[in-house]
Write a structure and sequence with these properties.
The protein is mainly α and 201 residues long. The chain contains nine helices and two strands; from the N terminus they run E-H-H-H-H-H-H-H-E-H-H. Bound molecules: protoporphyrin IX containing FE.
């Protein structure tokens, strides 16, 4: 059996499921509101109850997003020359011939993805509360709808890429989402700076 190393704590794994699950259900119900998709509304017990579920799922999503800051925010703000070089070779995704620079725990694509999720998440949350609680204020409603829709587009574009990279594009990565573990040998290849920093090299 290959020696394994813990990349995500149990709390990180559980919180990622809550973040991902609430986000996907919010996107599904939001999409159904936008295009008035009756069959999707029916799954949630009709449009009226889908509205309530959507609002409270938003609260769950925001709590999970707040906890995620403990897990990813510090890493997401740390960049060095290797991160710039990683972008110059497109992370090695476009060619096997390029040399991918050594990475820490997360590559810069993942770090920027997190900042996009955080920024768009805060925007979609605040505008959501605006629409939920300030229905009588036409200006707040207009601005909130606008911001909510822009942030939705960011999620709709970024999430499928993230899911593809976390599954099909990088076989083995999905295990991190399931139990937080990855093979030590893979971690030494993909995240040498992280492995060195924790003294396992
Ligand atoms: C259900 C589909 C999803 C799958 C299969 C998936 C997969 C993964 C995997 C495998 C990781 C660990 C990567 C690593 O440590 O190298 C991860 C991390 C992460 N996921 Fe997801 N994820 C999904 C949905 C989401 C959604 C919807 C969000 C945002 C709301 C999200 C946000 C994050 C963040 C912020 C991280 C940490 C930074 C990163 O690795 O990009 N995930 N995901």
């Amino acid at each position: 059996m290959a020696e394994m190393i813990r990349k995500s704590s149990v709390v990180e794994v559980i919180n990622h499921w809550i973040l991902a699950g609430s986000c996907m259900l919010l996107m599904l119900s939001g999409f159904a509101f936008l295009f008035h998709l009756e069959p999707v509304g029916a799954i949630f017990g009709g449009f009226e109850s889908m509205k309530n579920i959507h609002n409270y799922l938003g609260v769950v999503f925001l709590l999970s997003l707040a906890l995620s800051m403990v897990h990813y925010l510090k890493d997401a703000f740390e960049y060095d020359g290797d991160d710039v070089r990683w972008f110059m070779v497109a992370g090695g995704y476009l060619s096997h011939k390029v040399k991918v620079p050594p990475m820490g725990k997360y590559n810069p694509g993942q770090k920027l993805y997190y900042l996009a999720v955080l920024g768009a998440g805060i925007a979609i949350g605040i505008s959501g509360f605006g629409m939920w609680l300030m229905k009588d204020n036409a200006q707040v409603m207009l601005l909130s709808h606008f911001i909510h829709n822009i942030a939705f587009v960011i999620f709709a574009l970024a999430a499928p890429v993230h899911i593809y990279l976390g599954t099909l594009a990088n076989p083995g990565t999905f295990q991190i989402m399931v139990n937080g573990m990855m093979p030590l040998a893979d971690a030494k290849k993909k995240h040498p700076k992280w492995i060195k920093a924790i003294g396992k090299m």
